[in-house]
Amino acid sequence: MGAHAVGEDVVLTFVRPDGSVGQRHPLRVVADDGTRLLGWLPVGTPIVGSRLVDGRTLREAPLAERFRVPRVPVHDVWRGTSTLRLVDDERWSSVWWFFAGDGTFTGWYVNLEIPCGRDAHGPVRIDGVVDVVVEPDGTWRWKDLDEAAAAVEAGRLTQTQLERLRDEGRRCGELAERGAYPFDGTWTDFRPEPGTPAPRVPAALLRDVELVRDVET
């Protein structure tokens, strides 16, 4: 779909294997060469999240149900930390820099994903469930291996996909151990321009979410 201009709002869309939308995260473009996009998502930004159709969050459901109960899109906000995200169309991961409220860099998160190209709004990915957490000193660990196994059992991922996702996680872990890019300190001092508004999901992408909110209320 081509590169996006610096300062433009794009949307990182997570879809399910059947093509339905899982979540939408707006990003403010910091850099984009048409293949590798670097975008900013500050804490408190409205996003399209998802919940189980019965109203529970994913974490509130027992592991055996998390990938079997249908989900619906809901209005939500990005919580916890601000993130700078590097999304490479050719990689089965995106790398997130985490920043505390005072701007202090707190570590990296490797969100393992299946790339699905780009649409008119930005990158499209399938979340790979399993992830890698990288500390500022380069040490790393797996996250959510149990959920990934449950996702395979439920048919949400294939075993072949999970093996490739884990290969990508190990590749990123080895980079972190060596202090190689993107785990070499690049962008850890990132600060958005003062007064920069939060990125936004276009209204056209919120229509189905509005319907869900009306049903819930």
**Which structural class fits the helix and strand makeup?**
alpha+beta
Count of strand segments: 10
Number of helices: 3
**Strand neighbour order, sheet with most strands:** 1-2-3-6-7-8-9
N- and C-termini, Cα separation: 38 Å
Percent of residues in helices: 10-25%
Which percent range describes the beta-strand content?
Answer: 35-45%
Low-confidence stretches: none
Overview of this structure, please?
The chain is an alpha+beta fold. The protein has a single domain (9-216), classed as FomD-like (FomD barrel-like fold, Beta Barrel), CATH 2.40.380. It is built from 3 helices and 10 strands; from the N terminus they run E-E-E-E-E-E-E-E-E-E-H-H-H. It has helices at residues 145-153, 159-178, 207-216; strands spanning 9-15, 21-32, 36-41, 46-52, 71-77, 82-88, 93-99, 105-119, 122-134, 140-143. The protein is globular.
Task: Give the SSE map.
Elements: E1 9-15, E2 21-32, E3 36-41, E4 46-52, E5 71-77, E6 82-88, E7 93-99, E8 105-119, E9 122-134, E10 140-143, H1 145-153, H2 159-178, H3 207-216
Parallel strand pairs: 1-9
Antiparallel strand pairs: 1-2, 2-3, 3-6, 4-5, 6-7, 7-8, 8-9, 9-10
